[in-house]
Amino acid sequence: QIQPEKRTVQGLLTDALSSLLKEKITLIGSGRTDSGVHARNQTAHFEYAGNFPIERLALAVNTLLPADVRVKKSFVASDDFHAQYSAKKKTYSYRYYISKISRPLYDPFAAQIPYDPEAFDLLAAQNAVRDLIGAHDFLGFSSTGREVADSRRTIYSASLTYENERATGFYIIWFGLSRERLRK
């Protein structure tokens, strides 16, 4: 989402599209991410009546974007498509590593849990993750003063998988959630 005086994916993409298509573009995204969070397969749309070949748009706009922002695909959507309101599910993946020692090569992409991997009860953690499945009220996780019509969300699946790196003394934990927004 565009924020004044801050570098955002939506801001970068809007500027690049406006420059490429030589008109002011208003980009609507399917959702937002927190600062420092990576998004895959984020969808966005905008209205455009020009004659730029849409099948070449992704490749062309990528030449104007910084290396850490990429458009994977461009196409003409149906008239009833809306990036935000047509989205049905979101999948979240969280990556952690369990180690008493910080791992600088993992730190940009995973959070450290400073724990002894030998003492970590992986089976108990995997069982606990299952309690997240179902409908829950997430109002307690909302920002103060934020108005949300409905803070209930349904978690359809939750899993915890790992890669064992015992030779170097740590686990890499993948925690994934798939949820759907309940619409009225």
Instruction: Please trace the helix and strand order, writing H or E for each element.
Output: HEEHEEHEEE
Q: Proportion of β residues?
A: 25-35%
Count of strand segments: 7
Biggest β-sheet strands, sense, barrel: 5 strands, mixed
Q: Taking all residues together, what is the mean pLDDT?
A: 82
Q: Which structural class do you get from the secondary structure elements?
A: alpha+beta
Please state the overall shape, judged from the principal axes of the Cα atoms: globular
Question: What is the element layout, followed by pairings?
Answer:
Layout: H1 9-21, E1 28-29, E2 44-45, H2 57-62, E3 89-98, E4 111-113, H3 122-129, E5 134-137, E6 152-165, E7 170-181
Parallel strand pairs: 3-4
Antiparallel strand pairs: 1-2, 3-7, 5-6, 6-7
Give structural notes.
This protein has 184 residues and is of the alpha+beta class. It contains three helices and seven strands, in the order αββαββαβββ. The strands form two sheets. It has a five-stranded mixed sheet. Strands 1-2 form a two-stranded antiparallel ribbon. The mean pLDDT is 82.
Keywords summarizing the entry:
184 residues; alpha+beta; five-stranded mixed sheet; two-stranded antiparallel ribbon; 3 helices; 15% helix
Short structural description:
With 184 residues, this protein is α+β, with helices and mostly antiparallel strands.
